[in-house]
Amino acid sequence: MSSLSSFLEMGGYGGFVWPAFGLTAAILLALLADSLRRLKAAQGALARLEASSPRRRSRSSPDSTDGQQA
Questions:
Q1: In angstroms, how far apart are the furthest CA atoms of the chain?
Q2: Is 64 left (phi over 0), alpha (psi -120 to 50) or beta?
Q3: Can you say whether residue 12 is alpha, beta or left, with left for phi > 0 and alpha for psi between -120 and 50 degrees?
Q4: By C-alpha distance, which of 8, 29, 30 is closest to 19?
Q5: Taking the chain, what is the end-to-end CA distance rounded to the nearest angstrom?
Q6: Residue 46 to residue 16: CA distance in whole angstroms
Q7: For a surface tag, which of 15, 40, 41, 54 has the fewest beta carbons within 10 Å of its beta carbon?
Q8: CA 20, chain centre distance (Å)
Q9: Which pLDDT belongs to residue 58?
Q10: How far is CA 34 from CA 30, 38, 57, in A?
Q11: At what angle do helices 2-9 and 14-52 cross, to 10 degrees?
C-alpha cells in the first residue's frame, strides 16, 4: 500500500500533477463532445440541403459507349 501512496504523491508533486492530468482529460472530453455535436449538426444541414435541391441525373461513365459498337 505504501508503494501506491508514494506513486500518487509523486515525490511531493502529486498535488500539481494529478489536477493537471484531470484538467487535460476534461478539456479533451469537452473537445470530443463539441466535435461530435458539430458533426451531427453538419450532417443534419447536409441532409436538409440534399433534400431541398433537385436531383440531377447521374452522368454515364466515360468508358460507356452509349449503345454504340466499335
A1: 85
A2: beta
A3: left
A4: 8
A5: 84
A6: 45
A7: 54
A8: 24
A9: 64
A10: 6, 6, 37
A11: 70
DSSP conformation class of 26 = H
Question: Which residue is listed with cell 469537452?
Answer: 30
C-alpha cell at 39: 458533426
pLDDT in tens, 5-60: 999 999 999 999 999 999 999 999 999 999 999 999 999 999 999 999 887 766 66
Size of the chain in residues: 70
Identity of the residue numbered 69: Q
